[in-house]
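Sequence, please.
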């Protein structure tokens, strides 16, 4: 084991624990399993839960180890030791923050040791409510992997998973996992369908998941299928177009499995109309008729049983007293079945087995649907042409778009918000980016990174492709999310210019040079100092959420984040400028600088980071004149021009200052929110 690890763990030396982060990852890669075993021994000691020093040492060491494993890609080498420590934590009911850090690597361990993790799924899912948001996301990823590869293993955890659906940050991911479970074990979801319907009502975008679970449960039996169909058909007639494809697939699967539910006329219904509303109306009517027939059949059977029972008791021959179907229907009160019957009594013929032919009802339904369609089409032909253009384009290129989004996601972030505004040089897009994890030290938990771009058309196209990439069905112009983008597009256009559907269908994806331009702009505003793409989370996280091990350094009062010598440009007179070397320290909410080269000299007035408006490298035309290492700090009252020893040091200073400025603003926002 590395000497420093031996000292920190062997002597429980908290004062040296922070020095572990000064070691290179490759330097400690081979001894990480030994360190994990030593941590396991410490955590098993009788006084561990009451020993704050030991807990702090363990927390710091686990953070350093998991970081090194992630950076060196040595998960396979150390998976056995990781799982051993994790099992020990569960066995001793240990839940300090350091042990939660182990959740970060469990998704990577799972493919190599699934059986061990399967044994502890109950304990893991029960931990969800005790975890902070970052740890929750890692546990969610693990649950998703289990659901995809071994969904039956998760069926005992369904009640617990359903109970977490109330947390909106978990709902979508957990519903996706429950969809996988429902395919393998539909019976485990039966009793939770009412709760899932409520979730769908509260968040309409999740209705696709809820519909798939109903479809899976419906396969169990004809009774379950009938119940699921009633719900799915009600959605088909009321939901927007983007859900229709999913709903129809589930409906068709159930009616193909149990054709008697529609009297064998399912295929005719689907062919009779192109209107989803009309199809829903016909399906709904047929289900009502099927329900009425089923109820009447049950009444007939019950009446016959009762008649036989009475005749048997009185000793009479019941054979001559058994009522015929016609007598049963004629003696049944009208109100008991008139709700579901539109034809007069003379048209409601019955067959010998008591079922009701539906030909007349279907004919009436089709005629009504056709009249409804003709009314809808009269005023909407032009709109449908545009909608069809976008829908057909997205439908025909779904695979290309999905592949593009997969690659683009790691290069260019998708904005959370977009506002179009006029400027002196034309329309601009004001974009906002935030961090989805919202961890404890998140730089953008209460705020956003804002960017003004002169390429609004390109950003709108990217946002449309992002929406399509997330959807399992093609979008169309009547979808609300698409309408919002179309509204943004219209604000950028001159009268007579291309319409939104026309423009969006000119090219399937943006040109490479256009994407390069966006990347250059993001680099110029130092976006990549503050955000990075996380493979584990599948999205862009802020610097702190991507590097939680550095949070303690950045947030430790008085602890310098970076310090050293920089040259400051000083202006004596208009045409005489010179560079003066000074010692700078970035710590807390301030950038401190001394009057001379030594850090022991008296402080000058510091720069308050909360007052910094922006930090940028010098303009390109000035860099070409010999300032490749210089950057500028803009405050509300002054601009500072500083120069580092070389370009590498300049990049380090730029990133550290940008992170510290974002942290100062976030802290200020939190304090303001707390005060309010």
């Amino acid at each position: 084991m590395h000497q420093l690890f031996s000292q920190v763990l062997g002597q429980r030396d908290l004062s040296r624990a922070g020095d572990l982060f000064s070691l290179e990852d490759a330097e400690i890669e081979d001894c990480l399993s030994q360190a994990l075993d030593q941590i396991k021994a410490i955590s098993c000691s009788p006084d561990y839960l009451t020993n704050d020093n030991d807990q702090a040492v363990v927390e710091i060491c686990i953070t350093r180890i998991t970081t090194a494993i992630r950076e060196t890609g040595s998960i396979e080498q150390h998976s056995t030791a990781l799982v051993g420590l994790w099992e020990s934590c569960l066995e001793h009911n240990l839940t300090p923050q350091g042990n939660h850090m182990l959740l970060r690597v469990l998704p990577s361990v799972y493919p190599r040791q699934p059986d061990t993790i399967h044994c502890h799924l109950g304990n893991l899912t029960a931990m969800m409510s005790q975890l902070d948001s970052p740890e929750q996301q890692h546990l969610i990823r693990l649950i998703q992997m289990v659901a995809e590869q071994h969904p039956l293993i998760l069926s005992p955890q369904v009640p617990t998973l359903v109970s977490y659906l109330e947390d909106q940050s978990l709902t979508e991911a957990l519903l996706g996992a429950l969809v996988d479970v429902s395919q393998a074990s539909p019976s485990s979801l039966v009793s939770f369908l009412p709760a899932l319907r409520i979730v769908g009502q509260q968040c309409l975008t999740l209705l696709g998941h809820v519909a798939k679970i109903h479809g899976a449960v419906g396969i169990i039996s004809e009774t379950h299928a009938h119940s699921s169909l009633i719900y799915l058909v009600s959605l088909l007639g009321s939901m927007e177009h983007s859900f229709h494809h999913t709903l129809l697939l589930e409906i068709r699967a159930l009616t193909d499995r149990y054709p008697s539910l529609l009297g064998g006329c399912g295929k005719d219904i689907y062919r009779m109309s192109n209107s989803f509303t009309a199809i829903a109306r016909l399906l709904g009517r047929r289900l009502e008729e099927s329900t009425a027939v089923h109820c009447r059949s049950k009444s007939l059977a019950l009446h016959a049983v009762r008649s036989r029972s009475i005749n048997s008791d009185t000793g009479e021959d019941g054979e001559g007293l058994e009522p015929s179907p016609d007598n049963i229907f004629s003696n049944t009160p009208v109100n008991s079945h008139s709700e579901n019957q539109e034809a007069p009594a003379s048209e409601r013929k019955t067959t010998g087995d008591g079922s009701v032919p539906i030909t007349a009802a279907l004919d009436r339904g089709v005629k009504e649907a056709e009249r409804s369609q003709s009314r809808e089409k009269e005023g909407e032909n032009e709109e449908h042409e545009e909608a069809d253009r976008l829908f057909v384009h997205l439908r025909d290129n779904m695979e290309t778009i999905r592949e593009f989004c997969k690659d683009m996601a790691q290069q260019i972030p998708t904005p959370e918000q977009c506002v179009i505004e006029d400027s002196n040089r034309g329309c601009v897009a004001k974009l906002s980016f935030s961090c989805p994890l919202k961890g404890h030290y998140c730089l953008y938990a209460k705020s956003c990174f804002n960017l003004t771009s002169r390429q609004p058309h390109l950003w709108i196209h990217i946002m449309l492709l992002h929406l399509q990439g997330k959807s399992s069905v093609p979008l169309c112009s009547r979808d609300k999310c698409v309408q919002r983008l179309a509204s943004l597009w219209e604000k950028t256009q001159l009268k007579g210019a291309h319409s939104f559907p026309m423009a969006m269908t000119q090219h399937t994806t943006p040109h490479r040079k256009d994407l390069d331009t966006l990347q250059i702009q993001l680099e110029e505003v130092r976006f990549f100092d503050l955000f990075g793409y996380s493979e584990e989370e599948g999205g862009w996280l802020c610097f702190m959420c991507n590097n939680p091990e550095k949070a303690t350094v950045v947030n430790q009062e008085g602890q310098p984040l970076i310090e050293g010598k920089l040259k400051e440009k000083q202006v004596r007179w208009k045409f005489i400028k010179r560079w003066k070397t000074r010692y700078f320290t970035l710590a807390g909410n301030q950038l401190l600088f001394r009057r001379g080269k030594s850090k022991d000299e008296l402080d000058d007035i510091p720069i308050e980071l909360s007052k910094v408006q922006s930090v940028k490298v010098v303009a390109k035309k000035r860099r070409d004149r010999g300032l490749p290492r210089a950057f500028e700090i803009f405050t509300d009252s002054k601009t500072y021009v500083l120069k580092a020893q070389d370009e590498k040091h300049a990049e380090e200073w730029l990133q550290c200052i940008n992170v510290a400025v974002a942290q100062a603003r976030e802290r200020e926002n939190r304090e303001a929110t707390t005060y309010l």
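The CA atoms of residues 227 and 563 lie 68 Å apart.
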